[in-house]
Design a protein that fits this description.
Strand order of the largest sheet: 3-2-1-4-5
CATH class of the largest domain: Alpha Beta
Number of domains: 2
Bound molecules: 5'-O-[(R)-(carboxyoxy)(hydroxy)phosphoryl]adenosine, zinc ion
CATH superfamily of the largest domain: ATPase, nucleotide binding domain
Largest sheet: 5 strands, mixed
Subcellular location: Mitochondrion
CATH architecture of the largest domain: 2-Layer Sandwich
Cofactor: a divalent metal cation
Keywords: Acyltransferase, Metal-binding, Mitochondrion, Transferase, Transit peptide, tRNA processing
Subunit structure: Homodimer.
Distance between the termini: 31 Å
Main location: mitochondrion
């Protein structure tokens, strides 16, 4: 029915997140605890450290989500948790907690695929979004173009052959000496506004490959070379850079962003042509995942999608980056059609997971 209440738990990467969502789409609470600070200090995700960081905050994140929604475990209909893809040590922190709560309150449990959740959360915000639809999922680790035929039935139209676009944003930010306490993407987006996007001539990846796959490793190399040729020193933070140095960093950021997004635009255009041949009734293209929170990305892709006669659906930024709402919502979608696991035994020993 429309009264289901589902707790969603997400620990696949560097954010610990939980949310409570009602099956009518109402978001009762949403909490995200980021490890960006920690990662900035150590320069990347070290699995063991990330696991410890999740374990440290998971209880307060989940309790916070329940409190904010004015609920206890007794009120829930089910628990949804991300089971992959992601770092297994990190995933296990969430799964262990989900099983503990589901055991204590005898609730069904729904294992959720992280990328499916990025795509399906669009159906929470856009009620007109019916299957079949297309989705471009862009994050730090993934770069996917899919045709969603039905719940659980997806055709992959394209993926990256090396890096994802978010990885390219993050490395570019690091090499440009940007503040890494936030993630790299938002820092590049902000700096790019000051720059001239046509000042550095980066070539668009995979021009000669007439498919829907992506590649960002070559663009990363081009950026690194451009940074070296301008004598930019990443050890000098941008706040301490001379105005001339700052301008050349902004130019590289803007030129990188333009090229990175042109690659997305070309692939989306072709994917829409392909997909419409498979099913001419497709009306929507969803863009989701962390990079979809970028305003430049949204504006450019909106134009492409419109020019092809489709409509863009892009969740609000807080639902594009990793969050518990998308996990809870995807849990609801599966639960409704009977896809869930029975409650684990109430007295399951800790090491059974
Ligand atoms: O989906 P997500 O939160 O986590 C993964 O599943 O990877 O995506 C994180 C990625 C990071 O690479 C981050 O730099 C990027 O999304 N990102 C952005 C922006 N906000 C986050 N990239 C470009 N512009 C942004 N505003
Ligand atoms: Zn993600």
């Amino acid at each position: 029915g429309d009264g289901l209440l589902v707790l969603g738990i997400e620990t696949s990467c560097d954010d610990t997140a939980a949310a409570v969502v009602r099956s009518n789409g109402e978001i009762l609470s949403q909490i995200v605890c980021s490890q960006a600070d920690l990662l900035a200090r150590y320069g990347g995700v070290a699995p063991k450290m990330a696991e410890e960081a999740h374990a440290k905050v998971i209880d307060q994140v989940i309790q916070g989500a329940l409190n904010k929604a004015n609920l206890t475990g007794k009120d829930l209909s089910a628990v949804a948790v991300t089971i992959g893809p992601g770092l297994s040590l990190c995933l296990r922190v969430g799964v262990r907690k989900a099983r503990e709560i589901a055991g204590n309150f005898q609730l069904p449990i729904i294992g959720v695929h992280h990328m499916e959740a990025h795509a399906l959360v669009a159906r929470l915000i856009e009620k007109e979004l019916q299957f079949p639809f297309m989705a471009l999922l862009i994050s730090g680790g993934h770069n996917l173009l899919v045709l969603a035929l039905d719940l659980g039935h997806y055709i992959q139209l394209g993926t990256t052959i090396d890096d994802a676009i978010g990885e390219a944003y993050d490395k570019t930010a690091k090499w440009l000496g940007l503040d890494m306490r936030k993630s790299g993407g938002p820092a590049i987006e902000e700096l790019a506004r000051e720059g001239n996007a046509e000042s550095v001539n980066f070539s668009i990846p995979m021009k000669q490959h007439k498919d829907c796959n992506f590649s960002y490793a070559g663009l990363k190399t081009q950026v690194r070379l451009a940074i070296a040729s301008k004598n930019i020193d990443a050890d000098i933070p941008i706040v301490s850079a001379s105005s001339e140095d700052r301008r050349s960093r902004a130019d590289i950021a803007a030129s990188f962003q333009r090229t990175a997004v042109l690659h997305l635009e070309e692939r989306c255009e072709r994917a829409i042509e392909w997909a419409l041949k498979i099913d001419a009734s497709i009306k929507f293209l969803v863009v989701s995942g962390g990079v979809a929170s970028n305003q430049y990305v949204r504006t450019r892709l909106d134009q492409v999608v419109k020019s092809k006669g489709l409509q863009l659906v892009c969740p609000p930024p807080s639902l594009c980056t990793d969050n518990g709402v998308m996990v809870a919502w995807t849990g609801i979608e599966h639960f409704r059609v009977g896809r869930f696991d029975p409650p684990p035994p109430a007295d399951e020993p800790e090491d059974a997971v």
